Amino acid sequence: MTPIVLGAGPAGSMAAIHLARRGTAPILIDRDAAVVDALCGGFLSWKTAERLRAVGIGPVQLGAHPVDTLALIAGRSEATADLPSPGFGLSRHALDTALRRRAVGEGAKLEIDRARSVAHGVVEGEAREWRSDAIFLASGKHDVRGSTRPREDGDPALGLRIRLPAHERLRALLKGRIELHLFRGGYAGIVLQEDGSANVCMALRKSLLAEAGGGPRALFGRLADANPHFAERMSFAPDDAQIDTVGSVPYGWIAHDTDPGLWRLGDQAAVIPSLAGEGMAIAMASGEAAAAAFLAGEDARTFQRDFAHRAARPVGTAKLVWRVAETGPGARVLGWATRAVPSLARAAMALTRI
Ligand SMILES: Cc1cc2nc3c(=O)[nH]c(=O)nc-3n(C[C@H](O)[C@H](O)[C@H](O)COP(=O)(O)OP(=O)(O)OC[C@H]3O[C@@H](n4cnc5c(N)ncnc54)[C@H](O)[C@@H]3O)c2cc1C
After folding, report:
1. Are 352 and 272 in contact (CB under 8 A)?
2. Residues in the chain where the model's pLDDT stays below 50
3. Which distant-in-sequence residues (6+ apart) come within 8 Å of 277 by Cβ?
4. Is 127 exposed, middle or buried (0-12, 13-18, 19+ CB in 10 A)?
5. Report field, pTM of the whole predicted structure over 0.90
6. How far is 142 from 136, CA to CA, in rounded Å?
7. Structural domains of the chain, count
8. CATH code, domain carrying 300
9. Which of 139, 183, 253, 265 to mutate for ligand 1's pocket (most ligand atoms within 8 Å of CB)?
10. What secondary structure letter does DSSP report for 254?
11. How many CB atoms neighbour CB 169 within 10 A?
12. Which ligand 1 atom is the nearest neighbour of the CA of 144?
């Protein structure tokens, strides 16, 4: 039986690499023939870097920007803490290209098609259909009919991304840092990428858009008016900068069960709040663990329960940090605690890793 992996992001490619390395060459399906620069991601922790090195992908060789400092910025105040170990800033384009290439190099067969539905051992694509008793669902943020995640009620988080072009002064501001700018109702993470540009990735409550008059540009303007450090970074954005968005991120959701034969990976297994957590680490860890469990003859439902258990602590801790940080007073407390006891920030970083 040939396993099918749906989605060649970090979760799917990692599963395909590990399956193929052990002689079970899977079919790896993705909707995009050319790797796109996915909106979310950009910062890799030391743990993720280790996981990548283990499959022969070196962040440094890909030109990743080394990061050793976390800066928490709320309004006019800033607190910094050393990372427990150096991490990296790397574009999703560079990362996903390397992972996809490695999966194919190890023997996975890449097929390009957009899946319309996944159910009962059948992946129905636009061009063709695949059948298998082992389907690894790694479509990330995108739900596929037949296996959708529950929708978040209330005021969901939106993901937004803007790229700041490379500039000497921007490089000097951000060198060696991952910056988290905390706002009421969300945050922006800013980190340099391999080409010297900076990725500004934000998760903000949807209601903030309405408050700002409906559009992302008006919202950025409003946030910049209230946050001078953020305004300084955003001054490097061209007036017509492209703003990418992703709707309703179900932060905190974990798959505690699955259908027989359906192995849920990455964001389809657990969605860690990105302020403190690291979705790509969960994605790669789930791909690696699912491949090992499948090859050991385990069933999908046992894997899913075990992985839910493993993800519970990092996801729960990251959810708590996100809930505290998105209130104005909570953000100030986090800044104060980081300044007073930097080891607390390091402990939170360690607790939110898988
Ligand atoms: C605002 C924000 C910031 C973030 N920042 C970070 C960060 O700095 N570091 C970090 O580690 N994580 C971050 N994350 C989380 C991270 O982006 C995700 O957890 C991670 O991308 C999940 O990987 P994945 O492989 O599960 O899915 P994805 O990366 O979404 O990959 C899914 C793949 O499936 C393919 N696909 C989707 N639907 C179909 C279909 N129907 N048919 C065929 N192919 C399909 C896509 O083309 C894609 O290649 C952030 C998330 C948000 C919302």
Report:
1. yes
2. none
3. 314, 315, 317, 318, 352
4. exposed
5. yes
6. 14
7. 1
8. 3.50.50.60
9. 139
10. B
11. 10
12. 41
